[in-house]
Structure formats: structure tokens, C-alpha cells
Amino acid sequence: MSKYSNVYEEVKIDKKKDLVIKYLPLVKSIAYKIYKKLPNGVVDFDELVNTGVLGLLDAIEKFDKKKGNLGTYAYIRIRGEILDFLRKLDWLPKNQREKVKELQKKFSNYYQNNEELPDEEVLADMLSTDVDNVKKLLALSEVNNMISLEEIINPELNQTLKDILPDNSLTPEEITIKESLKKCLKEALKKLSEREQLILQLVYVEELKVEDIAKILNISISRVSQIKHQALKKLRKFLSKEIGEKL
Question: What is the DSSP annotation of 14-80?
Fold first, then answer.
């Protein structure tokens, strides 16, 4: 092996290290969003982060510049690696899995019979438990939904229980958008580009700051904001057309 080959390998290693450092905040964010929904003692946070880094390294190795942005591909691989790890771990105990299934069954039956969504108090009453326990079960359901599509409450809409329960932290505009998405989210998202979908995911699901998203995607802060507003505008336009009214 020539000295030039050795230099090339060293450059590759240094570049990979730089990319790992750059995308580490994304790894930690994805890991934390999943970790905080898991029961205590299931897995260490650092273990999820390390698993996410493995996904990141795999993304760096396999990424093809001709096919898009590394940030987009890395997000998919990091999250996928963590969820694969949890799937193999069989993290949800049998008794809790049964409680989650009971919650989903009660939720579905109530919706079918009343044509409206039960709130947390109604679910607590149906399950003969308290609201705090319902919230814990909903969190477990959400993680389980990430891992297994079999747990989706409405396959046609691609929604989980957590998706369609009211969220008091949202603004009136966001609540309106979220309610409309119940009917045509899957179709609406198909109208967005891969980057638009990713930015909405990073903003509203991963709750990353615009500055961090800009660093991850290697674009300006103003460009992130522009893409975000552009994506929301597309969603509003599509949803307005579908439901016959403007948001």
C-alpha cells in the first residue's frame, strides 16, 4: 500500500469523525424522544445514543450524494437503527403489552360507536384507572406504534392514538391543521418533498431548534424557515381543497 493510500484512509477517517460530531445532536434528540416514552429500566439512554451512532455511521458509509441530502438519510437510518434495537430487545413486558392493546380496543370501540374521539378522562373511566396511567399507556402505545405498524389505530390514515388525541400545547392554527390531517394526512404528506417532510419532522416531532436543523442539513437558518413555511403552505392548500374550506 502506498503512502498516498494511507493518507487517503486517514482523511476518510477524519471526515467521518467530523460528520459524527456534526450529527450527534440529531442522534441524541431522536434517542431522547424515544427514551422518555419507555418504561423505567428498560434500557439506558446512552445505549440508545450508541445504537443511533451505529445508524449514523452506516448512513455515512452508504450515502450516495447523487440521491439527496445526508441529513435526510441519516435521520432515517438513526431512527431505524434504534427501533430495530428495541424490536429485538422485546422491551414491552407482556402485562403492559396487554394493557396497551386493551386501551387501543376501547379507543377504537368508542370511536366506532360515538363517532368522536375519547379524551383521556373517558379512557380512564373505561379502563377503570386514572388519567396519569392513561397517559403512560398512550406513551407506551406511541413507541410501540413506531416499532410495529400493526398497532396503528386507523391504517388508512396512518395515525396512532397519540396523534389524534388533543394537544393543549399547540396553537389554534396548529390544532386546526392537526384536526384536518386526521382525514387526509397520508395523502397530503405525499405532496411534500423529502426535505420538506424531514424539516417538519425535526421541528414538530424531534423539537429541534431551527439553528440545529440548519447545521444538520448544511443550509442557512433562513432556508430552514422558508422550507418549513413552504411545506405548511402546501399542506394548507391541499387540505383546504380536500375538506372544502380554507384553514
Answer: HHHHHHHHHHHHHHHHHHHHHHTTSPTTSS-HHHHHHHHHHHHHHHHHH--GGGS-HHHHHHHHHHH
